[in-house]
Amino acid sequence: MSGRAKVLLIGFSLLASVASAAPGFDYKDYDDELMRDLEKTIKYFEPDITAQNADAAREDAAVLADGFRYTEDYFNKKGGAQDAVEISRKGSKLISQINDYIGKSDFDQAAAAARDATAVCKSCHDIYKPRLAR
Ligand code: HEC
């Protein structure tokens, strides 16, 4: 096989694995309520940090940490969704780093990490959230 054909093949199998990473899960048992809570919370998260409101920011962080723990657990049980499990762990790790920054009153670093947390939500939705749902 030529090098080019190999590259193409690898490309296709990557595409195929991404496509199959979004299996036709039905999310009947999924906690949409919690997701909406996360959505509300993450909107206040960075502003709370920037306002140096450590107590509020810690409360937000606790809600978000619960959320990432939930998604890790959910997709772990579901099986065949290792990306979602990894993404959730990344989110949890980020939240604990943010708590550390807040503890050190390093609100700049905390705010930057809070923006990354939003990207973590999105990275899971890009793969796992049904695009046309609702
Ligand atoms: C590991 C995967 C994953 C992570 C992480 C994740 N979500 Fe979701 N989220 C989903 C899936 C899957 C759905 C679709 C569930 C369904 O269709 O019932 C969803 C749905 C939602 C919805 C729509 C709920 C509704 O009313 O139907 C919102 C809002 C949302 N997520 C916000 C967030 C926010 C904010 C974060 C980050 C703090 C986040 N999500 C993190 C997987 C994830």
Automatic annotation (TrEMBL):
GO terms for molecular function: electron transfer activity; heme binding; iron ion binding. GO terms for biological process: electron transport chain. Residues 1-21 form the signal peptide. SUPFAM superfamilies: Cytochromes. InterPro entries: Cyt_c/b562. The keyword Cell membrane does not apply. The keyword DNA-binding does not apply. This is Cytochrome c. It comes from Methylocystis heyeri.
